[in-house]
From TrEMBL:
Principal location class: nucleus
Gene symbol of the encoding locus: g4534
Name by which UniProt lists this protein: G4534 protein
Residue ranges occupied by any RNB domain in the UniProt entry: 493-825
Keyword Nuclease attached: yes
Lineage: Eukaryota, Viridiplantae, Chlorophyta, core chlorophytes, Trebouxiophyceae
TM segment ranges: none
SUPFAM superfamilies: Nucleic acid-binding proteins, PIN domain-like
Length: 986
């Protein structure tokens, strides 16, 4: 049966056009249950022995996805009208719903009600699209009741009117909360149900409801409607941007605004007006006389939100504590501080400082960025010691990430969950509530357990740890795999097995995606080769594996674990360029002179056979030992000589040589706990490999862009705005050396000159501080910006891309396909020319790359906490920031940076042995005065001066703060009184 559907839509040119589509109605659409004799057995997913079948409406699918994912919920019928609406409204929930449909254990069946003759309905002129869809769901549920009369059908909906109409049709309909309470075998299911926007749990069908409690004081302003926000942004009276909440001070946020030209400061939760980190918000600037700046104070451990912020005022609800929960900021690993984040930002805001910033308040939420998978943390202990009551309890949940507020949830499991890490989702945040409301999702494990805390950091950084689906594994060739005769005879693939190729990687590396060679040529020049795993030979566009790899975007490396972008048979065997086996590669071959002048370059698919898989230490040993005259060792020395020239040339162009405090662990083979931690040693062999990879990436970028000017995936590093250099410039001025930030070349020259002959570590510390001033490098499509904006500031390169790691980065996969098309090996797919698709792809690559970086750093921080858990260590430190009430110090040996407070807590630590003074006093912060210009704390009597870059000694230990957040505690000790044997030095 053929129906014609007519509707109107707006084109990209803002024209309104009428569209007519043919809509086919059929009788042979299966019900998915073996109880239906007319259903196709191959299509059946629902169980014949189920107690009942559930039918859910769209809002349940959107807001109760955690409930649907619970093991107790199965045999669910998803109407196609529901699936389609979810796809349009929330891509993340849609993907989770699709996974439920694809899971054999869950028995979720999609019924194509919109194409079945008996269940398709036309829209009534007087009903909304939502009402029409609800009616379609009821009609389809009634059809199932007729089709399988022996099986109870239950419609789950939190819409009271929808339930009423269903009951009038003789359909059993329930709220999600009521259904959850009806399952005695899964009591935790009631905790998982989301609350509605009014902050209350879903109403029961029989009229019962959770008590709304006493009326509470309004804390926040109502958000303005989108219509007025859009108009105000267009007029310039409001400003739009993404909210970034300070990691070190959750009551301070920033919104980047192109219209203002710099970040807008939001001081306090009231100014944030229920916006969370990552939300796209509309901000109203305050009058200039109300602008404030960062305080000179470090935010203290367990310091409460300032009383001036109304969000800190108590509410009248009996289940809520008398004041806002206290949150603190302890020491962290230095690598956890990303470019653009500084310890200046630990502090609250104040109007007393001379350096005021544009300050505003959020007046509307343009797009929420609440995590559909929830937030990890633990329950806040009941400080008032109230006795447990019957039924659900209102409790506060404390996220492990300080950027997020406490969340109020209801649970019947408070005692059981007291020592557990949980996942909680946010459902709503009302104007009269100091906290958002949410619901329990799942338990991760016991607090402090290493595996549990690893799951926490993976969740916090949104790392996909799901097993690869059967469809993805089906794309991988079976093992054992080897190069075939067809590969060797392929006219588009060159046989390079005779070349002296080797790989150089960290110890234990299994996913080897790059190898190198160099050899002399008869004419006196050299041949340099970079050989990259030919992943795209196996990873084809538009396959299940390609879709999954594009979504994951990158491999995530933790201290003891790797979360792969591609299945392990590919990463560790088929594509890995292991020694002694033939492998497929994509090779870049240069003819180069001994002074590193490139004569020619060519690109080819190849077959290689690596002669050795060397570690950096092994390669360095071959380079250093002139007695070794074998072919590999001699060629490594040649390659290293070329790398030195290339590095010097880059430096002369203005490339920056920055530094980061990377650490390495010695791991116990049985317990897998860290036995020791120290700075990672970077050898010249590391730099040699880096130069070869940089050369390959630049060369490929130039070649691909010359063929595809508007659709090449590139990587750029934008020039940091001058304000980001302020911490470095202030430190340099106080330490009496000069930093010129007018260009990358002048900055590089300044960093080279920042030396203290008596202090070997000083220059590296300055370079670490400079690294913190950088912007994030990012992927982008060449058609999005003009060529001058392609520039990579850190590398001083006009063009750059990623080509050398396709096993672990999807960006490199894209570039491999572009290069193959550029040299005529295949045609460029049509969708690769789609600018919108490339923009979305680059956005996901940037997000996933940063998430993977942060997860890796969090893993290092976790293992450092484990290392210090049962020990105290005294170590050398350097002062990197001085504030009115304390210091920020960096501990080079362990890569730790954190605050040292000159407060009551710190009065047991002597100040003798640091700075210019020599006193055995035990002062608090009130005994010191801050000199901002000199970056110095001076005692009132002038006997003690603490300046930036001063050496100190700190005692490192682990303490537990709010919400079971373990953190490092740094305390100053008297360095002069310590035997050198007790001091862990650089």
């Amino acid at each position: 049966m053929l129906q014609h559907k007519k509707f109107v839509k707006k084109t990209k040119q803002n024209k309104i056009v009428q569209v007519s589509r043919e809509h086919y109605l059929r009788d042979d659409i299966w019900s998915g249950t073996p109880l239906d004799p007319e259903s196709d057995a191959a299509a059946n997913k629902l169980s014949a022995t189920a107690k009942h079948y559930l039918v859910v409406d769209t809002n349940v699918a959107l807001s109760q996805i955690d409930f649907l994912e619970h093991a107790a919920v199965d045999d669910v019928i998803i109407m196609s009208v529901v699936l389609e609406e979810v796809r349009h409204r929330n891509a993340s929930v849609y993907q989770r719903l699709r996974r439920l449909v694809e899971s054999p254990a869950k028995r979720f069946f999609v019924f194509v009600n919109e194409h079945h003759r008996e269940t398709y309905i036309k829209a009534d002129v007087n009903e909304s699209p939502n009402d029409r869809n609800d009616r379609a769901i009821r009609i389809a549920a009634a059809w199932y009741m007729r089709r399988v009369p022996g099986m109870p059908i239950i419609v789950l909906t939190n819409d009271a009117e929808n339930r009423r109409k269903a009951l009038e049709m003789g359909i059993n309909a329930m709220s999600v909360q009521a259904y959850a309470r009806s399952l005695p075998d899964a009591p935790e299911l009631a905790d998982i149900t989301a609350v509605e926007s009014n902050g209350q749990a879903a109403m029961d069908i029989d009229g019962g409801a959770v008590s709304k409690g006493k009326k509470r004081k309004r804390i926040y302003e109502d958000h303005r409607p989108m219509s007025s926000i859009a108009a105000a942004i267009k007029q310039g009276t409001l400003h739009q941007g993404s909210l970034r909440v300070n990691r070190f001070n959750p009551y301070e946020g920033y919104v980047g605004s192109e219209s203002v030209g710099q970040d807008i400061l939001l001081a306090g939760r009231t100014a944030m007006n229920r916006a969370l980190d990552g939300d796209i918000v509309a901000v109203e600037l305050l009058p200039e006389e109300q602008w404030v700046s960062a305080s000179a104070q470090l935010r203290k451990h367990d310091e409460a939100e300032p009383n001036a912020d109304e969000a800190s005022q108590p509410t009248s609800e009996e289940e809520e504590d008398a004041d806002m929960a206290r949150e603190g900021g302890g020491a962290s690993l230095a690598p956890q501080v990303a470019p653009g984040e500084h310890y200046d930002d630990i502090s609250s805001s104040s109007s007393s400082s001379k350096d005021k910033r544009p300050t505003g308040r959020v007046v509307g939420i343009i797009r929420r960025n609440w995590r559909t998978r929830g937030y990890s943390g633990s329950l806040q202990p009941d400080r008032l010691g109230r006795p447990a009551k019957q039924g659900p309890s209102n409790v506060l949940f404390c996220p492990v990430e300080r950027r997020y507020p406490f969340i109020r949830i209801q649970t019947r499991q408070a005692d059981t969950l007291a020592d557990k890490r949980l996942v909680v989702a946010i459902d709503s945040w009302e104007v009269d509530s100091a906290y958002p409301s949410g619901h329990y999702v799942r338990t991760l494990g016991t607090i402090g357990d290493k595996d549990t805390e690893t799951e926490v950091l993976l969740l916090e950084n949104d790392i996909n740890t799901s097993p690869f689906s059967p469809a993805v594994h089906a794309c991988v060739p079976p093992l054992p795999w080897s190069v075939t005769e067809a590969d060797l005879n392929d006219p588009n693939r060159e046989d390079l097995r005779h070349l002296p190729i080797c790989s150089v990687d960290p110890p234990g590396c299994k996913d080897i995606d790059d190898a190198l060679h160099m050899r002399p040529l008869p004419n006196g020049t050299l041949e340099l080769g970079v050989h990259i795993a030919d992943v795209t030979h196996f990873l084809h566009p538009a396959t299940a594996m390609d879709t999954e790899a594009a979504s994951r975007a990158t491999t995530t490396y933790l201290v003891q674990r790797r979360i792969d972008m591609l299945p392990k048979p590919l990463t560790e065997d088929i594509c890995s360029l292991r020694a002694g086996v033939e492998r497929l590669a994509f090779s870049v071959l240069w003819e180069i002179t001994k002074d590193a002048r490139i004569v020619s370059v060519r690109f080819t698919k190849s077959v290689i056979k690596s002669r050795a898989a060397l570690t950096y230490a092994e390669a360095q040993s071959r380079i250093d030992d002139e007695r070794l005259q074998d072919e590999l060792s001699v060629n490594l020395r040649r390659m290293n000589a070329i790398a030195r020239v290339l590095r010097r040339q880059r430096s002369e162009r203005g490339a920056l040589q920055l530094a980061s405090p990377e650490v390495k662990f010695e791991i116990d083979t049985e317990t897998h706990d860290p036995l020791d931690v120290g700075m990672y040693q970077v050898r010249e062999a590391n730099q040699m490999v880096e130069e070869m990879m940089l050369l390959a990436n630049v060369t490929v970028a130039e070649h691909v862009l010359s063929h595809f000017a508007t659709c090449t995936l590139l990587r750029r590093h934008q020039v940091p705005p001058p304000r980001q250099f302020e911490p470095l410039l202030k430190a340099a001025s106080a330490a009496h050396f000069s930093i010129d930030i007018s260009s990358s070349k002048t900055l590089a020259e300044s960093l080279d000159l920042a030396q203290r002959p008596e202090d070997a570590y000083f220059n590296k510390l300055v370079r670490i501080m400079a690294t913190r001033c950088m912007t994030q490098a990012a992927y982008f499509g060449s058609g999005e910006v003009s060529p001058p904006e392609y520039y990579h500031y850190g590398l001083a390169a006009p063009l750059y891309t990623h080509f050398t790691s396709p096993i672990r980065r999807y960006a490199d996969v894209v570039v491999h396909r572009l290069l193959a098309a550029a040299i005529g090996l295949n045609r460029l797919p049509e969708d690769a020319k789609d600018g919108d698709r490339l923009h979305a792809l680059a956005g996901n690559l940037n997000l996933r790359h940063r998430n993977a970086q942060m997860a890796g750093r969090a893993s290092v921080e976790l293992h450092t906490l484990i290392f210090f858990k049962d020990r105290e260590v005294i170590a050398d430190a350097r002062v990197t920031r001085v504030r009115a009430n304390g210091l920020v110090v960096f501990v080079p040996k362990y890569g730790i940076e954190g605050p040292v407070y000159l407060t009551e807590k710190a009065k047991t630590a002597s100040m003798q042995g640091i700075g210019a003074g020599n006193t055995a006093a035990k002062p608090g912060s009130e005994d010191f005065q801050l000199d901002e210009d000199q970056q110095m704390l001076a005692s009132k009597d002038g006997k003690v001066q603490i300046k930036i870059f001063d050496k100190a000694a700190v005692r490192i230990s682990v303490v537990e703060g709010t919400g079971h957040r373990r953190q490092l505690l740094l305390q100053l000790v008297d360095r002069a009184l310590l035997p050198q044997s007790e001091l862990a030095s650089v």
